[in-house]
Amino acid sequence: MASLAVFASGKGSNFVALAERLRGTSRHRLAILVCDVAGAPVLDRARELAVPARCISYRGRSRAEAEADMLEALREHRVDAVALAGFMRLLTPFFLSRFPGPVLNLHPSLLPKYPGTHGIEESFRSADRELGISVIRVDEGVDTGPVVLQRSFTRTGTESLEEIERLIHDLEHEWFPVAVLRALDGLDGGAA
User: Fold this and answer.
1) Model's pTM, two decimal places?
2) What CATH number is associated with residue 85?
3) Is 67 part of any domain?
4) Which of 1, 115, 127, 164 is the Cys-Cys partner for 143 at CB 3.0 to 4.6 Å?
5) Contact 181/21 with Cβ under 8 angstroms?
6) Residues 69-91: pLDDT tens digits?
7) Orientation of helix 13-23 relative to helix 41-48, angle to 10°
C-alpha cells in the first residue's frame, strides 16, 4: 500500500476528486493534505472528509524553511508520493532533491503549450481546436517535467471561457485520480 500527500492552495475540487477515488480503493491511502494558505477552502474539504491536514505557510520565512516543514510532515505521515492539486507554488530543488518519491502536477493545458498560472485563459484565447489537461512528473522547471497523461476535447469555438473552464475541470476530476493511482500502483509493485 502506497501513501499519498496532496498539496493544494485553493478551493479543493481536485483534492476532493482524489480523496473520493482513493476512498473507493483499499490499495492506497491518502495520508495528508498540505496547504500553504491559512483559511483556504480546501482545509474545510479535508475536515469534511476526515483527512489529516496541515497548513504550512510561506509567509515571513524562506522557501527552504517552509519546504523543510513540508518534508517533515511527509516523513511523519510516511508519504510515498505527492500530488499537486492547485498548489500555487513552485517546489524548489531543495524539496525535490530530498523527497524520494514521485511528485505529480496537474496542469490545465496540453503542455508544452501554455505553462504557468494562466493555462486555461491562454488556451481559451488561442486558436487551438484541441484543449485539455496534462499530468506531469515535476522537475525543477515550470511545467517542464515529463508528461504522464494528457486528455483533451475538441472545442467548437462558440464556448465561453466559463464553459471551457468547466470542460477542463471535468477532465481534471476524472483523469488526475487515474494518473495518481497509476503512480501509486507503480510504487506498490503494480498492485491490482
Assistant:
1) 0.94
2) 3.40.50.170
3) yes
4) 115
5) yes
6) 999 999 999 999 999 999 999 99
7) 20
Region of poorest pLDDT, from 1-5, 142-146, 184-188: 184-188
Q: With contact defined as beta carbons under 8 Å apart, do 176 and 85 qualify?
A: yes
107 is catalytic: yes
CA–CA separation, 100 and 48 (whole Å): 30
pLDDT value at position 165?
96
Indicate the number of domains in the chain.
Answer: 1
Mean pLDDT of all residues in 2-29? 94
Query: Which range of residues forms the domain containing residue 43?
Result: 2-117+134-151+173-187
- In the chain, the DSSP E strands lie at 2-8, 28-35, 53-55, 81-84, 103-107, 130-137, 147-154
3-state secondary structure of 192: coil
CB atoms within 10 A of CB 157: 7
Compute the distance between CA of residue 88 and CA of residue 35 in angstroms, rounded to an integer: 10
Say if 102 falls within a structural domain.
yes
State the average pLDDT over residues 104-119: 96
CA gap 88, 80 in Å, rounded: 21
- Residue 123 placed within a domain: no
Q: Which residue has the cell 515535476?
A: 138
